[in-house]
Each structure stands twice: as structure tokens, then as C-alpha cells.
Amino acid sequence: MSSPTPAYDAVAATYTRLHHFGHLQSLASWDQSANMPAKGNEARAAALAEMAALLHRMRTDPALAAQIERAEQEPLSELQRANLREVGRDWRSANALPESLVQRRQLATARCEHAWRSQRPANDWAGFLSHFGDVLAVAREEATLLAAQTGLSRYDALMDQYEPGMRTAVVDRLFGDLRQWLPGLIRQARERQAGERVIEPTGPFAVAAQRALCEQVMGVLGFDFDAGRLDVSAHPFCGGVPEDVRLTTRFAEHSFIGSLMGTIHETGHGRYEQNLPRALLGQPVAQARSSALHESQSLSFEMQLGRHPGFVQRLAPLLSASFGSQPAFDAQNLHRLLTRVRPGLIRVDADEVTYPAHVILRYEIERALIEGEIEAADIPALWDEKMMDLLGVDSRGNHKDGALQDVHWPAGLFGYFPCYTLGAMYAAQWFAALRRDLPDLDARIGRGDLAPLFNWLRERIWSAASRWTTDELAQRASAEALNPAHYRAHLEARYLG
Amino acid sequence: MSSPTPAYDAVAATYTRLHHFGHLQSLASWDQSANMPAKGNEARAAALAEMAALLHRMRTDPALAAQIERAEQEPLSELQRANLREVGRDWRSANALPESLVQRRQLATARCEHAWRSQRPANDWAGFLSHFGDVLAVAREEATLLAAQTGLSRYDALMDQYEPGMRTAVVDRLFGDLRQWLPGLIRQARERQAGERVIEPTGPFAVAAQRALCEQVMGVLGFDFDAGRLDVSAHPFCGGVPEDVRLTTRFAEHSFIGSLMGTIHETGHGRYEQNLPRALLGQPVAQARSSALHESQSLSFEMQLGRHPGFVQRLAPLLSASFGSQPAFDAQNLHRLLTRVRPGLIRVDADEVTYPAHVILRYEIERALIEGEIEAADIPALWDEKMMDLLGVDSRGNHKDGALQDVHWPAGLFGYFPCYTLGAMYAAQWFAALRRDLPDLDARIGRGDLAPLFNWLRERIWSAASRWTTDELAQRASAEALNPAHYRAHLEARYLG
């Protein structure tokens, strides 16, 4: 008997092949950050550019366009139709760009990111500009093409790749509101904490012990080590494929908090990937919904759970077992340490309250860059002004802890930054909904009974993948679309409560 | 101005693309052995099968065939002509096999190798047979197709893939002669060593210290750590790409000799790869000449140099520095330890003198398997008989240290085994030639002055890549084609001298 959906099946087969090739691409990207020695870079960049070109050719094959069109007329299930919707998104975004641009983007970002690794420690802004110009030029070109196709603004067209449906107008409203109350909250929290006595942990903390602790905590958080691993890279990330998730962290002997909380963050990403639905793996509908949804999982782990007083109580004895007992590992002290509000230069080291200020800064600058309102050379002055304005921090002349601190811009990832704070908002919304569904959630966390929390996330978020739009997923999970009130309520309860 | 060699340029461009895709394939294969968690296997196998099919399609594209034919009429340089000769070899071997067979081979070997990893420790011969049947069936089919194309016997057709130009008739003559004198040499060497007092090193030897020692010795041997690295796998190998060589070893706390000598072996492979000519990288002419030539490098490092009394003298203080001083690390004792002749079950643990007996055994069995003279079920009885005959060792019922000990057969690598002993013969020939060219070679090794040795290998072997046939390369390097007399002379000098 022949299939009643031959065109859909052909489209699905193409996406299975894309999934197979994407596997090799993801692995090579992970390896590039986690393992690759310096002289391997040129060959790796060439190999990845070749693969990017192949995937682009597959996505822009006219035969695929025709199959998608015919598949839309076939008798599809609701899930198949959802897949076809996501296929359409993927097709439109690929077909907006010529292959030559895809290849130029790959080469420009690989070169810029590689150079950035040594330019950052050298505080070499001028050197960075020489490569970054190409990355920005390619990104603007890409944004222009995507905007022409979608009718969106250039920045919206880029942001839509990470956060389907999200628009500058919404982000402006959310971040504009945040800009109003955040400085006051930071000030009040700092005043409140001024009188607290917090004992700093005394190092050094052996890297081997830190690694063992990170892996232990990943186990507590349900990470499946038969389907993933933890390695080291300069900038922590969650890579690999859903079937084999590669988390990275970084270790410094003088402190374990960065590696531990970073690992907890990436474990949130990792569990999302490990729990995407298996039956349709490879199809766009089985991919994580969006970047903000992804960050909502990492921040549910790192912030909502990881800094929860009940969880910190469970964490404290693990620290003593790993590094030997010391007064700083008292659970209450540890909680104060993990919730201390201290404006600083580095986004990834920022506390939960000052973090969104870093995101607002990057959002405002990158949007203006992409819309052509400013040039790359304007970044340092704007950076300094906004750091002072938002956090009262002087960043002048310190490029390495300024615009050179993040991999996103050298890697050409414009439009991603807002997702961090949108994710924090979603995470607060999930936990508000969780507390409605599981009134004893906080007590359970204190008892180390995390299964109901993970089950909730699996059912509502992870296994839903891209079956619904983000708004509909949020509605189904928490009975409302994105509502930033939960985020403010969470921060006020934790920091002023 | 347009190129006077448009067809050749098109062929070369295709091989550059194959090199880029092959990069991702090699990396994923290395990762599969060095990093991949168990549940990642199915997705990895599917990704690698997809890539194998793509590469096969590129190699069998009729347009490529036409370009190769036209390129042969173009005004090519000697090097371009050599490249076209190697392209022709590659083209013929790819075009003898249909894509369906390539895909079945990939899946059958991935499944069998994966199952083998747990069947080996469980001594599960019956379980192994259930997957190995598919691997053997596919290998025979492949051999039949290659034989039909080349006019060679089925086994010769497989062996020719690893060792171009080598034939069963030659191997039979070389190994037949070896079979004559080897048992006597083993007996004499053992009699001679019977009276020696050898002190065993006392463990345990911490894995971290072993790893540091291995990396130190790789440095002494000139391995470029900016273009490669050392990791761990169940079966040590040299993988990756020439621009980024991935060596593996394995550590056991009770002994450091396996990890150290294994690493020295793989470093020989690694330096060959790292020193292939850069200008034409990606073209077949820039690839290592053959498997026996590759093994001639690993065995030049592990056996000719690694067990040279002068080198062992340099090694001894490194051991004391790594593990603390002990009587076993006396240089003379260490040399006795490293040259002790002891028939055993395991090929990779075998000493220099009994090693070829393991290779003869495998050669005789796999040739009969491929030629259809025996079936997989016949292996254990033949194995037992030959182990007793060649080495006087009883292997009955011990499958895990018998036919299950090697990855080659589950991975479908029939025709490779002879290359180990051919490589040992070439290595002895290189060192005989080296001593003619550098009369003070042995004194230099004793002084740790290894540069002239490496320079000789770089000029004569590594940088020549596949520019000449193996016979011509041997002629140019050592003024004669393969001459097994050097191998016998080397063993007699070292073990009976």
C-alpha cells in the first residue's frame, strides 16, 4: 500500500538527512570549543563552511519547495501539520539567503571568533574591529534579506530566528518597564544586604574536585550521562545533539561557584535537549521551541532552583564533602553568597538581579548596530555610558571586560541577547505555575524531592518541543502567555522579601 | 587568463570538498571511540552512514569520471600526474561498489563493533557471531566486486585498498620464510633470556602521572601539540586529520608500559600525518602512501627507536621523575623488560619477536574467510590450532583473548593485518639505511639527538606522501625495494647479538 502522504514523507526524509548531517556539524562545533588545538582551526573552519553550504543547498533545493507545497494539500495529522509549519519557517529562513552569503558568514565568524580568543586577553579593540567589520557587514546583509522576505524590521528579522514571533515592539515594552524598576530594586537589595555578614569560601579548590562536584550535581539534576557528557571550554555552552548532549563549563582554582552554577545552568539546557520527543527526532517539530524557552530551562535550573534556599541546603553538604568543611559552606551563608547583588563588568558572572541590565545594554547596542544607526567603532563609548547608567560601573578602556567579553558578536549571533531575560521571565512564570499545581513545591525542593518539578517541565515544556507556537505553549503550560509580573514578583520576594 | 588544466582543476576541487567532508567524518569516528556515551551510538551510526553515502555519491558522480578522463589529456606537472594516478585508484575502488553496499557496510560494522565492546569482556562468541555474519557477508560481497574490477583474487582486492600493489603471492613468500625461522628465533631468544634477572616495576602508577609521562615523551618525539592531542579509548589508534591529529591510548593503574609504548607507537603514526605535505593537502597524492608504510613509522618509533638501548637510557630518568625512583627503572633492567620475549595471547601486548606470529595467524584466517574457504564458525578451532603451532599457547575457550581481542574484524577491516609485519620489515629497512646515511645514529640516539633521525624520515617518507608507488618510495629512501633480510638481521642483532 502506498503512503497517502508521499510529499510529506519526502519532506520528512529530507529533514532526517539534515538531522544526520547536522549531527556531524554540531559535534565538530562542540569539539572546536572543547578540544581543538590552535593549528586545527583553518581546516575545521573550511570543513564547517563546506557543510554549511551543503545544508543550505539541501534546504534551497527547488524540489523541496515543490514537495512542501504539495504536502500542504495532503491529509496530515495535527502533529504532521505542526511539523510542516516549522518546516515552512526553516525553508523561508534558508531560502532568503544565497549560498555565497552562508559561506561568507561561516568564514567571517570563524575567523573573527578565532582571533577574538587572543584579542580578548590582550584588550585589543582595534585588532577586534578589523575582523568584526566583516561579521557585522555579513549580518546586516543577512538581516536585510530576511527583512525583505518577512516584512519585519532588520533586527526583528534576526531575532525571529531565535525567538519566533517576538518583536522589538514587545521587547521595548518589556525592557522599558524593567529599566524603570530595576535600578530601584538593585539599590534596595544592596541596602538590605549591606548589613549582612557573608563569609567568602577559602580556596584553592582543586579542579578535579570541582569537576567531580559538577558531575555529582548534574546527576542530582537528572542529567543522563549515558546520553551526554561534561567537558571544558573557554565559554560554557550546551552543544552536541539531543541523543548525545555535550555540556561545557570552565574551572578556576580560586573559585568553584562559577563552574558549579555554570554547570547547573547548562544542565537545564541539557535536560531540555535530552527530553525532546524521540519519535520525530530530526523533524523541526521535535526541536526546542525557541531560545527564550531554552534559557527558561537553564534559568529554571540555575536561578529558580539553583538559588532556592531549599536546594542550597541540599548543596551545602556536597561542598563540604568535595572541598572539606569550612564556615562559608554553612547553608545560610551559602545562600547569602549565591544571592548577593553586586554590579560588575561581566555578564556571565552577574547575579540574578543585575543580569538583566547587561542584557538590556547589549540589546540596545546590537539593535542599533543592525538597524544601521551606529557603527562598530561607536560601541565602546555607548558601552561605557550604558554601564554607568544601568549599573553605575566604570568600564572605560577595559574592552576585554567590555564588548570583548562575549562570544555572541564575534560569532555573529545578533538577536540572541534578549532571549536571556525573556527566558528569566518565562522561568519565573513556570515556577509561579508550578506552585499553583504543586502547592508543596518549596517543601519538596527542601527535601530533595525534585522528580515532580522535572516531570512538570518534561510534560509541559520539554516533550512539547515545537508542537505549538511559543504563546500557545505558555498558555497550555501556565494558563497565560508571557507575563513579566511573575519575574518582578520573584525578584522582589527573593531579594526584598 | 583561464587555466590550461580546467578538467584537472575540477577534479582537484572535488577532492578538496571530499577532504572537508572527510574531516567531519574522521572527527566523528575519533569521538565515537574517545568520548561518545553509549546512547549516542545509534544517532552517530546513522550520521556516519549518511556521510559515507554522500562521499560515495561524490566519488561515483559520472561528471567526475568524465573530468578525470579529460584531465589525463591535459598538460600536467609530474606532481599533478601523480595525483591523477592516485585519484584513479580512489575512483576505481569507489566505483566498484554500489551505494547500497557502502551504506550496509557502514551499518553492519557500526552495529557489530558496538556489540563487540560488551561481547568481548563477556567472552560471548555466540553473540558475536550473530552480528559478525553480516559484516563478513558484506566484506565478501565487496571483495567479489573489487576482484571483478581489478582482476585480483578476492583477498588481494581487499588488501590492495590498504597496501597498493601488495599481493598474496608476495605475502605468502615473506610470511612463509618468516614461519621457517621465527620459531627458532623465539626459542633461542627465550633460552638466552632465561638466565637474566629482570625486576618488575612495582605499581600502582597513577593515571594522571602516566598521562603526563606519555605527553612528555610525545614532546621528546616531536609531536606538535598545537596540531593534535592525546585522549583515551578502548583500542588505541591515530585518528583525526593531518591538520589536527588525535592519538589515543589506554591506561591501567597496574602498569605504565602499555600506555607508554602504545603512545610511542601512535606518535609514529601521528608524526607521519602531521608532516604530510601541506600544499596539496586534501588531494590523494598528499595522503600517506600505504598502511604498511604507516606501520613502518609507528614501529620505527615503538620498536626501532623505543626499544633502542640508547633511547631507553634517556627514558629511564623520566620514569623515576614520574613515579618515583625504583630498582626496575635502572636503564639496563628497563631495556631487558622492554625486550623480553614471552609468547602470549594478546597481539597488542606482544613483544617485538612474537608479534609477527599473531599477524601470520590473522592473515591465514582472514584470507581463508574472504576467499570462502572457511566460515566464521570455524575461527575458534583454527585460532586454537595456530596459537599452539606458532606460539605454543593454549587459547581454547578463551574467545575474549582470542578472535574477540581485535577491533579489525568487527570493523570489517579485512586485508589490514599483514601491514603490521610488512611495516616492521620496512622499519628495519629504514634503520639499516639510516645507519648507512648517519654512521653515528646509535650514538646520537644515546645522546637524545633525535633531530637527524626525524629529518631523514620527514624527507624520505613523510613529505613524499603518495607521490611515488611504494616500491619507488622504498628505492628512493633506501636504495632497494622491500627486503626482509633487514628485519631478520635486526631481530637477530637485538635478541641474539
How would you explain this protein's 3D organization?
The structure is a homodimer of 497-residue chains. In chain A, a hairpin with a 2-residue loop joins strand 2 and strand 3. The longest helix of chain A is centred in the first third of the chain and has 29 residues, at 6-34. By secondary structure, the first copy, chain A, is mainly alpha-helical. The first copy, chain A, has two domains: 1-95; 156-497, Neurolysin, domain 3. Helices cover 64% and strands 3% of the residues of chain A. The first copy, chain A, has a three-stranded mixed β-sheet with strand order 1-3-2, sandwiched between helices. In chain A, helix 2 runs antiparallel to helix 5 (99-119), helix 12 (309-323) packs parallel to helix 17 and helix 16 packs across helix 20. Chain A has helices at residues 6-34, 41-59, 62-71, 78-95, 99-119, 125-150, 154-162, 168-194, 207-220, 257-274, 291-305, 309-323, 331-338, 355-370, 379-391, 418-437, 441-447, 451-462, 470-478, 485-496; strands at 228-232, 238-241, 244-249. The radius of gyration of chain A is 23 Å and the shape is globular. The model of chain A has no long low-confidence stretch (mean pLDDT 96). At the A-B interface, helix 1 and helix 2 of A face helix 1 and helix 2 of B.
